[in-house]
Amino acid sequence: MQDHSNSVASPSRQMDFARKLRRLGRRFWQGVREWSGDAAYERYLRSTATRGSRCPNLSAEEFYVEQLNRRYSRPNRCC
Hints:
The chain is mostly helical. It has 3 helices and no strands. The chain has 2 domains: 8-37; 39-79, no CATH class.
C-alpha cells in the first residue's frame, strides 16, 4: 500500500512557492517598467541621492519635459 502523505504539499512549501511567484511577478513588472521608461524618474532620484547633489531634484513633470527635450532637440535623420 502507498503512503499518500507526501502527495500534499506542506504549508511551508506552499509559502515558499507563493513567495517565489510574487518575486518573479515583481521582477517581471520591474522589467516592463524599465523597458517602457516608466521607471526613469525613480532611477533619476536614486542617482541624485547617491551622488549627494546639492541641486534640488526636478519634479516628475520637469524630469519628463527634460527627457523629451533631450530626446527630440538633436537632429534625428534616418539617412
